[in-house]
Amino acid sequence: MGVRINHNIAALNAWWNLTKTDSAVRKSLEKLSSGYRINRAGDDPAGLVISEKLRANIVGLDQAIKNSEDAISMVQTAEGALTEMNTLLNSVRALALHAANEGANDTEAIAADQAQVDSAVDSIDRIANTTKYAGKYLLNGAAGNSVDVKNTNRVTAASIGSNASTGFVSYNITTKASQALISFGNNTDSGGAWGVGDLTVNGTTVDLTTTYSADQIVSAIMATVSGVYAWTSTDASNDDHIFVRSVNYGSEVSLIVTGSAVSGNIAADTGQDVAGTIDGSSATGSGLTLIAATGTFKNMKITIAEAYNTTATNPSYDIYVTAGLLRFVLGANADSNEIATISISSMRANQLGTSTAGSQGLLAIKSGGTYDLDSNASTAVDIIDEAINDVSTQRATLGAFQKNTLESTIANLGVTRENIQSSESRIRDVDMAEEMVNFTRLQILQQAGTAMLAHANVAPQSILQLLG
Questions:
Q1: Distance, CA of 346 to chain centre
Q2: What is the pTM of this model?
Q3: Can you give the residue ranges of every domain in the chain?
Q4: CA-to-CA distance for 352 and 162, rounded, in angstroms?
Q5: 36-144+326-429, which class in CATH?
Q6: What does 31-94 look like in DSSP terms, one character per residue?
Q7: Widest CA span in the chain
Q8: Whether the predicted pLDDT of 162 surpasses 70
């Protein structure tokens, strides 16, 4: 064999293998010390791409869970305020019941009850106007669906329930509302005397004589009976007829006229409710008010102006809704499927009990109001009952949102995050036992390589014997 000294090929070979082993040892040490199989893109380029996508998803899920927890805190803040409102309303109801017990109360006792009612109603209003979460008002209507009536000539009022979406809302009247209407006549010449001995309208007796004219009967009805309108008309045969019509519309309005002036001594009629559609979905009616039975705007109410009680057109731009002002991102990607919305109706005193009290709401039971304890304690109880129902319904809506949307979302996100983290771990994390086996092997190779390099460096020294 040849013997050379300028190039020690055996030593170079041993050095090169030792260098590779040393590099592998450093990488193995890095994996063992970091716990990651992939510490840089060069370790596994494809695995790094997949791992980073999974990590981004995990970060998004973590934030979605925090968002849901923040939403629960907001809901609990609102419900805490509503709970106090319920407590106040229950105390107000007890005061109204006490005041209604007129036989055992004097003026001073009722006045004392009224003072407490005024204070409680003011407290309810204050709670509604001041309850905030993260600087956002929750109960004064700012966090709820809002309705803007663009054409008051056709729509006198509009309100929506828990369901809504932002935009114009179309409506259509398929059956117009009607009032109860009765007519009767005595087949005498116009202006002649009526042979009327008795007349009762909706249970109210109209005091008449047998010499009354049609116009006098109408005047007597208008002066005696509330909630109706009466007039006369002459037919083609010059006979007088009297018409009596209810002021209000709808199936709950009835009109009964009895007496000798009526054919058969009795005439009766009932009004008809409006019917139609709201946003293309069916809507039932209550008088002049359309109520959506299904669809996006379920429970929305649209009150038609009396002059526009017609089936002639289908308006599309009379009502504009701004909906779902509280929006929560409950997913990792913030797309439309991962956004939940809820609205909180105004809980101000003038918005509670409005079906019974009208536009004043709960304010109507305060001192000087239409239904204060001194003037109408019984109706005040009805208004308070409706207000309690309004507040309880809003609490139930918030509770359902918390339980069925937020808490279930947190549970689902937790499971999803766990599974994705497991997938990311299998790609990114190092198997410590396997890597320790590899590290031990590399250590042995490193020690063996170092020894062999030493032997390879010693071998050329044998040439000195040839020179010697």
A1: 12
A2: 0.66
A3: 36-144+326-429, 179-270
A4: 16
A5: mainly alpha
A6: HHHH-BS-SSGGG-HHHHHHHHHHHHHHHHHHHHHHHHHHHHHHHHHHHHHHHHHHHHHHHHHH
A7: 166
A8: no
